[in-house]
Amino acid sequence: MDKHYQKFNNIHGGHNCEEELKKINLPKDMTGLTLLDIGCSEGFYCFEATKRGCTRVVGIDINAERIKIAKDMRNKSGYTNVYFFEADLYDIVKHISKFDIVLFLSVFHHLKYPVGALKILHELTKKLLIAEIEVSGTDNIRRDGHGFCYPPKNWVITAFKMAGWNNIEEMGIGKNGNRIIFCCVK
Ligand SMILES: C[S@@+](CC[C@H](N)C(=O)[O-])C[C@H]1O[C@@H](n2cnc3c(N)ncnc32)[C@H](O)[C@@H]1O
């Protein structure tokens, strides 16, 4: 896995976060809200949520190097209400409370148990889940050169429903033509 994923400030990953931010429709005013970013990478969206007024922001990622970068940046930033933890999403549900908004951006294809993950997101979300999920673009599963699998869109929507999500909307297209941004309201 590449050392850096996100591109912002002095982090030189391949994904332009400012461009992505325009697509995910994060509320402009987040005063008083709490936010959890699952698979937060170097923490761009967590810092953005803090700037927009969230009272408590938590980013978790299984990648120790990325979390170290996020923590270093946090320590230099002066923001005291953003926290980063190296953690696997499957392990966190018993340890943290619910958040108003949960972000789950481009993590789905990394996971062994995707329906289980959507169920965990359902347990952790109070109001809104914003999820970016790459689909195959066909009626079949697509595999890429890294061994990641991308299911058909209808499969993803069924998986959301199986996990308890009933109010699922497509908000647009994310990082590439097959990454769909879903907005799921509780
Ligand atoms: C493609 S990157 C997306 C990063 C960020 N969400 C974004 O959109 O800019 C996927 C991230 O999910 C993390 N990840 C993968 N499996 C995970 C798991 N089981 N629990 C927590 N994070 C995970 C990876 O380490 C990686 O940083």
What would your notes on this structure say?
With about 190 residues, the chain is α/β, with parallel strands linked by helices. The protein has one domain (about 5-185): Vaccinia Virus protein VP39 (Rossmann fold). The protein has 6 helices and 12 strands. A 7-stranded mixed sheet has the order 6-5-4-7-8-12-11, sandwiched between helices. A 3-stranded mixed sheet has the order 2-1-3. The protein is globular and about 50 Å long. About 35% of the residues are buried. The model has no long low-confidence stretch (mean pLDDT about 95). S-adenosylmethionine binds near residues 39, 41, 60 and 61.
Chain-wise SSE layout:
Layout: E1 6-8, E2 11-12, E3 15-16, H1 17-24, E4 34-38, H2 44-51, E5 56-61, H3 64-77, E6 82-86, H4 89-92, E7 99-105, H5 114-124, E8 125-134, E9 142-143, E10 149-150, H6 153-162, E11 168-173, E12 179-185
Parallel strand pairs: 1-3, 4-5, 4-7, 5-6, 7-8
Antiparallel strand pairs: 1-2, 8-12, 9-10, 11-12
The structure holds S-adenosylmethionine.
